[in-house]
Automatic annotation (TrEMBL):
Native source organism of the sequence: Paracoccus broussonetiae
SUPFAM superfamilies xref list: UDP-Glycosyltransferase/glycogen phosphorylase
Membership in a protein family: Belongs to the glycosyltransferase 20 family.
Protein name: Trehalose-6-phosphate synthase
PANTHER family tied to this protein: BCDNA.GH08860, TREHALOSE-6-PHOSPHATE SYNTHASE
InterPro entries listed in its UniProt record: Glyco_trans_20 (IPR001830)
Pfam families, A to Z: Glyco_transf_20
Length: 453
């Protein structure tokens, strides 16, 4: 098997849900994992073996220009805002599209050099939409699957692209298109339905010109048991001596899709109605990402202003309303934080799945669980119907939900938590990867894969 993703694990250890899942999958099946090296440069290289795993890691380096035009440019200033319904933030430049195509062609050649005819190829995310088409052009007839981690764009939004018709054509070169939710599948099918080149087959497949593809949802999850185990480790105290008492938690990459300004505003609105002395605090962990992109600089500044304003308005000598932390936190500490928090806040305006929602639920003590506030626009909301679902555009609605969550009786908390935990367990990350690979293999019954039959 060959896996292609933008990021690959570097260094000695493997952490993070997706990375662990792919590491285990490749560890079981053997194969090669290809991705971009975090440091800029030229060329390709094999990274040191990760322990005794039976797979290899192959990294390609992006030049400074490629980093700017392919990664920050086309991937994160065109496709990311497009998929997150922020057409207003799309920044279109000719050099972006050209670099995106060139990097995809280069990665296709890399795969072409090492792929055997019976290798399965699994491509991840919006950085590599045209990769299958580039590989087909080199003559690769392998079974190629694609998984999109972010929301599938609405048909109308695709018109933002200079050549919107290429989106369907690129995707149709994959044998299987995996998406997070049933709503994503509906939007993808709508795109194919509107395209005169596509024809729907009786078995649900899509014939697109001379190719056949399938579209299905595979909701991604986390390593549920591992996370619950970390969360229960009482020896770990993430606060040291600065215990805030009762608190709410938010954990997000600092991204405009996560609805952070409205979260802070809603928390402030909640505080207005709560007498001083009985107020909880909000711990917000948000490491900055993609800071070279203007929209990310803007959201960083906006959030600092709001946090400063809320803290200036409500702080007391011995209490700060918002503890706003800009760095990464080790996973075991993060798990402990989730467990101690009375409320977990997910307020995305658009989100493929949102793993934080699942991590928060997995980390709770089932006897005395906290409450998850979950945006109805996060993919996780499709199945986690017993989370307290909120409309992140409506600050008043979120403020009321914060109040409801903090006052919720134990029995209702337990009932809602048990239902959400059931969803988290059923979509565990190993179930996700196994289901995807099974689906990718079904069209070739003679093909077997150790551990995935
Ligand atoms: P993201 O947009 O990054 O992922 P999310 O699914 O919430 O969003 O995953 C974030 C991960 O990073 C979580 O595992 C979280 O614990 C971790 N994290 C965030 N801040 C951290 C911090 N300060 N320290 C340590 N860890 C931190 C994209 C899509 C999502 C989709 C995932 C997986 O945007 O919609 O769910 O991929 O497919």
């Amino acid at each position: 098997m060959i896996v292609v993703s933008n990021r690959i694990p570097t260094g000695e250890s493997v952490s993070g849900g997706l990375v662990v899942a792919l590491h285990d999958t490749l560890g079981c099946a053997g194969g090669i994992w290809i991705g971009a090296h975090p440091e800029p440069g030229i060329g390709e290289e094999t990274l040191d073996e990760l322990g005794l795993t039976p797979y290899r890691r192959l990294a390609f380096r992006l030049t400074e220009e490629e980093q700017k035009n392919y990664y920050l440019g086309y991937a994160n200033s065109v496709l990311w805002p497009l998929c997150h319904r922020r057409g207003d933030l799309v920044e279109m430049r000719p050099e972006y599209g050209a670099a995106y195509q060139a990097v995809n062609a280069r990665v296709a050649r890399m795969v072409g050099k090492i792929a055997r005819h019976d290798d399965l190829i699994w491509v991840h995310d919006y950085h590599f939409l045209p990769l299958a088409k580039e590989m087909r052009a080199l003559g690769l007839a392998n079974r190629i699957g694609f998984f999109l981690h972010v929301p599938f764009p609405a048909l109308g939004d695709l018109s933002v692209l200079s050549q919107p018709e290429r989106f369907a054509d690129d995707l149709a070169h994959y044998n299987l298109i995996g998406l997070q939710t049933r709503s994503d599948v509906a939007r993808c099918l709508e795109m194919f339905r509107a395209d005169p080149r596509a024809e729907f087959m009786p078995d649900g497949g899509i014939k697109f010109l001379d190719r056949i593809t399938a579209v299905r949802s595979f909701p991604i999850g986390i390593d549920t048991a591992g996370f619950a185990e970390d969360a229960a480790q009482e020896a770990v105290n993430p606060f040291g001596r600065g215990d805030p008492g009762r608190f709410l938690i938010g954990v997000d990459r600092l991204d405009y899709s996560k609805g952070l300004p409205n979260r802070f505003r809603a928390f402030a609105r909640y505080l207005e109605n709560r007498p001083a002395g009985s107020r909880p605090c909000l711990v917000q962990i948000a490491p900055p990402t993609r800071q070279q992109v203007r929209a990310y600089q803007d959201i960083t500044r906006e959030l600092e202003e709001i946090a400063g304003h809320v803290n200036g308005t409500f702080a007391e000598l011995d209490w700060t309303p918002i503890r706003y932390i800009h760095r990464s936190v080790p996973r075991v500490e993060l798990a402990r934080l989730y467990r101690k928090a009375s409320v977990g806040l997910v307020t995305s305006f658009a989100d493929g799945m949102n793993l934080v929602a699942k991590e928060y639920v997995a980390a709770q003590d089932p006897k005395n669980p906290g409450v998850l506030l979950l945006s109805r626009f996060a993919g996780a909301a499709e199945d986690m119907t017993d989370a307290l679902q909120i409309n992140p555009y409506d600050v008043e609605d979120v403020a009321t939900a914060i109040s409801t969550a903090l006052d919720m009786p134990l029995e209702e908390r337990q009932r809602r938590h048990a239902s959400c935990l059931d969803v988290v367990g059923r979509t565990d990350v190993t179930i996700w990867s196994t289901a995807f690979l099974r689906a990718l293999m079904t069209c070739i019954p003679s093909m077997t894969f150790p551990g995935f039959e």
